[in-house]
Amino acid sequence: MSEKIFVTKSYLPPQEEYIAYLNGIWERHHLTNQGPLVLELEQKLRQYLGLEHLHFSSNGTIVLQMALKALRITGEVITTPFSYCATSHAIAWENATPIFADIRKEDLCIDPDCIEALITPKTQAILATHVYGIPCQIERIEAIAKQHGLYVIYDAAHTFGVQYKGKSLLSYGDVSTCSFHATKVFHTVEGGMITTPNAELSEQLKLYRSFGHVGDDYFDIGINAKNSEFHAAMGLCNLPKVDEIIAGRRRVTESYDQHLNWEKLTKPTIPADVEWNHAYYPVFFETEADLLKVRDALAAQNIFVRRYFYPSLNTLSFLHAHQSCPVSEYMAVRALSLPLYPDLPDHDVERIISIINENL
Question: Which Gene3D superfamilies would you find in this protein's record (predicted)?
Fold first, then answer.
């Protein structure tokens, strides 16, 4: 039996590069609490992404919670049903109410027309996901938010390295968050970041990340969303490799694009004004039965794909949602993410394509 292939494989830098950072940590005995490597990583991220205010944090979920808390969101938040569960879980965890707006079939992102139809006096914010790193309808969402006095938070977990109209996709919205989980294009093993163009809000988020105090001076409530020197070290090793990582992912993407059977499959549309990061390779089947047949055929050859995103979040009973989202529900049972990482060998890519095409 061949070696197992998973939907992703975490990039690891040359071991000696990471060990060099570890040696410095051992010398300094400064392990966490905004150590020098964390500060260095934050500064290099600001430079790479072109962002003024940015805070490295412990994961991509807690920064969503921090955003909701900092914006004093306690009412209704219009959000997408087609995302990882962290998006809606963060809303519910903060005792706000997720209201699900359906998505656009073209890009799987939240549909602005559906957002407008759901706005009530209780609505305080829109929390949208740039699905698979593909931008939402940013200008329309901004116009809707401005008209109704709403905040816009972007779950930009998939967007590291994505450029929209010449700027980092993370630069849009009142707050934008990103995940640096091990499965992402850029990772720090575990981690995340939060950014905002508002300097005052940035300072509030910085306080929230570290229990609401600076030294012995306490200013507000807070939580422990800091990250360690060990995670920052991984980020400092990986950041210079991002362009190379994206190029490797693009190679796999182009093979899928050229050789999959597009008479039986569809995929999202990447707009012309987007420089994409190839974070995922989703395909959509004509029926769920077709998807399951292909998934099982791949698994029989030790190739493990993922139903990403499944199920449609508005169908989760514990979220107490009452909104029908027919497009999301339709796409969620037909969506499958294929293996995608820089060092996936060409012969394995060809084998994956062959198995899929043979079982359609």
Answer: Type I PLP-dependent aspartate aminotransferase-like (Major domain)
Half-sphere exposure of 101 (CA within 13 A, CB side): 25
Residue 167, SS3 per DSSP: strand
Quote the CA–CA distance of 61 and 44 in Å, as a whole number.
22
Stated as kind and residue range, the H or E segment containing 100 is: strand 97-100
Query: In one letter, which amino acid is 101?
Result: A
Positions annotated as catalytic residues are: 184
| pLDDT, tens only, 64-108 | 999 999 999 999 999 999 999 999 999 999 999 999 999 999 999
**Structural domains for the chain:** 15-240 (3.40.640.10), 242-358 (3.90.1150.10)
Instruction: Give the pLDDT mean for 125-146.
Output: 98
Measured CA to CA, the distance from residue 321 to residue 208 in angstroms comes to 29
- Give Cβ neighbours of residue 113 (< 8 Å, ≥ 6 apart): none
How far is the C-alpha of 312 from the C-alpha of 116, rounded, in Å? 20
Q: Which residues contact 263 (CB under 8 A, 6 or more apart)?
A: none
**Residue the block writes with tokens 């049972």:** 333
160 and 142 in contact (C-beta within 8 Å)?
no
**CA angle (51, 57, 63) in 5-degree steps:** 85
Residue 266: strand pairing partners? 284
Tens digit of each residue's pLDDT (9 = 90 or more) over 50-73:
999 999 999 999 999 999 999 999
pTM over 0.90: yes
Please enumerate in sequence order all residues whose Cβ is within 8 A of that of 121, keeping only pairs 6 or more positions apart, or say none.
Answer: none
Average pLDDT over residues 191-215: 97
Integer angstrom CA distances of residue 163 from 65, 125, 141, 166: 25, 24, 18, 6
Neighbours of 218 (CB within 10 A): 12
Q: Given the structure tokens 């796999």, which residue do they identify?
A: 252
For 241-257, write each residue's pLDDT tens digit: 999 999 999 999 999 99
User: With 80 as the cut, is the pLDDT of residue 313 above it?
Assistant: yes
CA distance 190 to 180: 6
Pair 225, 239: CB distance under 8 Å: no
| Residues facing 77 on adjacent strands | 98, 125
Dig out the tokens for 103 from the structure.
């998505």
